[in-house]
Amino acid sequence: xxxxxxxxxxxxxxxxxxxxxxxxxxxxxxxxxxxxxxxxxxxxxxxxxxxxxxxxxx
Length: 58
Known about the structure:
Elements: H1 7-20, H2 25-32, H3 36-44, E1 50-51, E2 56-57
Antiparallel strand pairs: 1-2
């Protein structure tokens, strides 16, 4: 699966999938075969961090 390149679109896409389809970030990464480190690094460059309590990047 190819994720959006634009970090802000990526943020929206990932948070939507986390909200609607996945129970956790690990679940999302496994389901879509995405590297957790690269995803968190890319969104981290925008100062977003994954919050497991809300299951979203904030």
